[in-house]
């Protein structure tokens, strides 16, 4: 396992399946964040069944984009993203319920998370 740095402001970890002897994911999948509720950071896992453009965004309950965590091409495999409860301008967001969405061509999944201060 190693940590990569991309052009966005969150870290993304990627498992090397060849090194651990597991099969590559066949489907796209968005996992539940942990811990949940969280303060001050939370992590969630997503699986890429193929190399594709992917967008992962956090929304408030009004449907407004709070933070874009991933926006670009990601390789096949399992990835982890950490959110530090900040919006795109770097300001810490308020306590409450948020939604996060993973979207690729032909796949979309939405889950909820709770920030408790």
How does this structure look, described?
With 117 residues, this protein is mainly beta. The protein has one domain: Macroglobulin (MG2) domain (Immunoglobulin-like). It contains 1 helix and 9 strands; from the N terminus they run E-E-H-E-E-E-E-E-E-E. It has one helix spanning 17-20, and strands at residues 2-5, 11-14, 29-30, 42-48, 52-59, 65-74, 77-83, 96-104, 107-115. The strands form 2 sheets. A 5-stranded antiparallel β-sheet has the order 1-2-7-4-3, with no helix packed on it. The chain has a 4-stranded antiparallel β-sheet with strand order 6-5-8-9, with no helix packed on it. Strand 8 and strand 9 (107-115) form a beta hairpin. Mean pLDDT is 85; it is low at 1-14 and 16-21.
Write the layout of secondary structure elements.
Blueprint: E1 2-5, E2 11-14, H1 17-20, E3 29-30, E4 42-48, E5 52-59, E6 65-74, E7 77-83, E8 96-104, E9 107-115
Antiparallel strand pairs: 1-2, 2-7, 3-4, 4-7, 5-6, 5-8, 8-9
The CATH class is identified as Mainly Beta
Biggest β-sheet, characterized? 5 strands, antiparallel
The level of helicity is under 10%
Tally of helical runs: 1
Structural class of the secondary structure composition?
mainly beta
From the 3D coordinates, which CATH architecture would you assign? Sandwich
Which word captures the global form?
Answer: globular
Output the helix-strand order: EEHEEEEEEE
Distance between the termini: 31 Å
Poorly predicted tracts of residues? 1-14, 16-21
- Mean pLDDT score: 85
Lateral strand order in the biggest sheet? 1-2-7-4-3
Number of strands: 9
Spell out the CATH superfamily: Macroglobulin (MG2) domain
Portion in beta strands = over 45%
Please name the CATH topology: Immunoglobulin-like
Number of domains: 1
């Amino acid at each position: 396992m190693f940590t990569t740095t991309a052009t966005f402001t969150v870290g993304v970890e990627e498992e090397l399946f060849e090194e651990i002897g597991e099969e590559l994911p066949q489907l796209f999948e968005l996992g539940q964040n942990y811990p949940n509720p969280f303060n001050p950071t939370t992590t969630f896992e997503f699986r890429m069944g193929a190399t594709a453009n992917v967008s992962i965004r956090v929304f408030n309950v009004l449907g407004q984009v709070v933070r874009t965590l991933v926006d670009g091409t990601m390789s096949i495999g399992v990835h982890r993203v950490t959110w530090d409860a900040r919006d795109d301008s770097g300001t810490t967001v308020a306590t409450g319920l948020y939604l996060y969405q993973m979207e690729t061509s032909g796949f979309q999944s939405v889950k909820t998370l709770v920030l408790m201060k």
